[in-house]
Amino acid sequence: EAELMRALYQAGGILPSNYLAEAKLGWRRMSRTDRGVSAMGNIITAKLLLADGAADAAWGQDPEGLTLAAAINRHLPPAVRVFSVQPVPQSFRPRHHCVARLYKLWIPVGPAGLGCAPALDRLRAALRSYEGRWPFHNFTQMKRYGDVAPEDSPGTGAREGMRWLPTGAMGSPPGERGVHAAHYRRVISFECRPPRELVPGSGREFVEVTVKGESFMYNQIRHMVGAALAVSAGLVPLELLECALSEPARMGRLPLAPPETLVLMQSDFLPFRGPGGSTAGEGGTRRLELRAGGLHLQRDFWNSHLSARISECGSGEAWNGFFEGLSTSCREENPLYS
Length: 338
Description:
Layout: H1 2-10, H2 22-25, E1 28-29, E2 38-39, E3 44-45, H3 54-61, H4 66-73, H5 94-97, E4 98-108, H6 109-112, H7 117-128, E5 132-135, E6 163-164, E7 184-192, E8 196-197, E9 205-213, H8 220-232, H9 239-244, E10 249-250, E11 262-269, H10 292-314, H11 317-333
Parallel strand pairs: 2-11
Antiparallel strand pairs: 1-3, 4-9, 4-11, 5-7, 6-10, 7-9, 8-9
Helix pairs in contact: 7-8
C-alpha cells in the first residue's frame, strides 16, 4: 500500500497536503492478507485528484481506466501492478461490499507426496469437508482456551480430552475467548487440480487448490490447507477436521501452511445500486470487476512475474520445513489423533 500511495502521488493523483493522510483520501482496502501472501485481486479505494473534465474523458473513452493504470504503473516496482482504475459510488466500502473472495494456493507435489492418486483423493476429501458454514475458531489465532470438557458437556463430534470454549460472551470467564458469530464463515467451494508445472520445463510440479468463500479470518486458509495435508499424508484421520469444525471443541494448534504460494486472485461484488435501490449503470449490470483489458494485464503479470516467483518459493525452505515438521507437529499438538 505504501508503494501504491507513493506512485499515486508521483502520478499527480494526490496533493502534497494529503499524501499519507488516509482519512483525507478515504483510503480503504478490501482485504488484509497474511504476511508473505500475494494478491492479484485486491481492491483499494481513494479520492484521487484529476484535472477538470478528465474524469469524463477518461472513463467515457476508457471505461476500465487502463490509461490511468498505466500512468500509475510507471511509478511502481515490478512486483506491484494496477490492472484497472474505475469510479465507484461514494458510499462504496470494498471490505463490506465484497460478497466473495477467491484464493489459490500451490502445493509442491514432491514434498507433499501428492504424486499418487490415493493421497490426492484424501486431499480432495479433506478440502471438501470445509465447504459450508462452520465455526472456524480452530483455524485462526486464539490465545486463551476453555478447560477440558466435563463428561456431560454438549458438542458435535467431540472426543475425550479435547479442550472446550464457552459458546458466547455472556458467562465467559474473565479474559476467556469464546466461539462467537464472527468465527462462523461460509466456504463456497474448495477444489484442487491434478499436478502440473507452473513454469514449463522447470521440473517443479504443483497441485493447485482453489478456495472461494464470503470472507476468511487471519491464517484460516493456511490452517485449512495445513490440516488437509496432514490428512492427505495419513498423519491424522479425516474425522479430525469434523471435530475441529464443531462448537465449542478446541483442538491443539493445527498445521499452518507457508504463505509464499498463497494468492488472493479475485473479489466479487454485487451491482451498484442507483436512486431508490434500482441497479445502477447501463442495463443494470454495472459493478466493480476486471474486464477484458484488466484481465489481460493480470494474466501478463502472472506469466511475466508471479508464476516464476511462486514456483521458486514452492521449492524453498518454507515448504520443505513445513513437511519435515508436519509429523512432529501433529503428534505434539493433537496426541489423541497421532
